[in-house]
Specification:
This protein is 26% helix and 28% strand. By secondary structure, it is an alpha+beta fold. The strands form two sheets. Strands 1-2-3-7-6-5-4 form a seven-stranded mixed sheet, sandwiched between helices. Strand 8 and strand 9 (230-239) form a beta hairpin. Helix 3 (79-108) packs across helix 5 (180-195) and helix 3 (79-108) packs parallel to helix 6 (201-209). The longest helix has 30 residues, at 79-108. The structure holds biotin.
Length: 291
């Protein structure tokens, strides 16, 4: 991977500028600095190696040179997006996941699903993670940094003991070696397409259609200010108009979550396969949850 090869592969994508690094701390950090220096909409930072790759919730993201695909796209908010952004910020967070899952479905025929909010799974294992961060200026959101990591070769998959959730890679799932730059191109085509539809119902419906565990019982952890957070159990219903997760409790009440994580996947996989709703897990009313 080098600057020339990347530019050649992405020649038809309407990017403003591309910066390739053999090694850096984090493409999201480099993109943040570049955006503050005035980078245009659709500027791309890509690296072969990240020394301090970051994941959601303060976790780290391991990047193996030659085996991982890691990049960050600078999305400068248009006036229309800017005016609507408070309602749609979570849609930007889904944008990366929808783009990766569509690219994997269309070009690699993989059954990609989205573990809300934005992990991409194939066959119940994580293949890609998305870190969307907003830059504010003068009290207003101005830029979204869309950071995406995809495990391409098996070396990119960390050892099981280091994982909170099982992981996989593109080559493992397709049984063939894959060109990282081609994967990048496919994902960027999807990002351009879905960004233009971000405010459209079809985007939300696609995100929802790719949602993992629909109709299944899951546990969701969400922060309530305590260090451990709150665990809620519920059946996955879908998404609301903001991209928030809707769960149904055992008593039929609908709960809406704007943030949180599904740490274990399908609940039936726990407790020796015997699921008993209401087994001592705290349920929280919707209006007490963080917005
Ligand atoms: C997660 O699953 O928690 C999100 C992982 C996001 C990783 C990507 S790799 C490219 C970009 N740069 C980073 O430091 N993080 C994101």
């Amino acid at each position: 991977m080098n600057q020339k090869a990347i530019e050649r592969e992405l020649a038809r994508i309407p990017l403003s500028d591309i910066r390739f690094f053999e090694s850096l701390d984090s493409t999201n950090d480099a993109a943040t600095d570049w955006a503050m220096d005035g980078a245009s909409d659709y500027s791309l930072v890509i690296a072969n190696h990240q020394k301090k790759g970051r994941g959601r919730l303060g976790r780290s993201w391991i990047t193996i040179p030659g085996a991982s695909l890691v990049f960050s796209l600078i999305l400068r908010l248009s006036s229309q997006e800017y005016q609507q952004v408070e309602n749609v910020f979570s849609r930007f967070s889904g944008l990366g996941a929808v783009s990766v899952s569509q690219a994997l479905r269309i070009h690699y025929q993989l059954p990609a699903m989205i573990k809300w909010p934005n992990d991409v799974l194939v066959n119940d294992k994580k293949i890609s993670g998305v870190l969307a961060e907003v830059q504010w200026m003068g009290g207003h959101p101005t830029v979204v940094i869309l950071g995406i990591g995809i495990n391409i070769a098996s070396k990119a998959v960390p050892p099981a003991r280091d994982l909170q959730f099982p992981a996989t890679c593109l080559e493992g799932e397709t049984g063939a070696s894959q060109n990282r730059l081609l994967v990048l191109r496919h994902v960027l085509v999807e990002v351009c397409h879905w960004r233009s539809l971000l405010m459209d119902e079809v985007f939300l419906r696609t995100w929802e259609a790719h949602l993992a565990y629909r109709g299944e019982w899951i546990r969701l952890t969400s922060q309530d200010g305590s260090s451990t957070g709150v665990v809620t159990e519920g059946r996955v219903m879908g998404l609301d108009s903001h991209g928030a997760l809707k769960l149904v409790s055992q008593t039929g009440g609908v709960m809406v979550f704007h943030s949180g994580e599904i740490p274990d996947g399908k609940y039936s996989a726990l407790d020796d396969g015997i699921y008993q709703p209401g087994s001592g897990i705290q349920l929280r009313p919707v209006d007490s949850l963080p917005k």
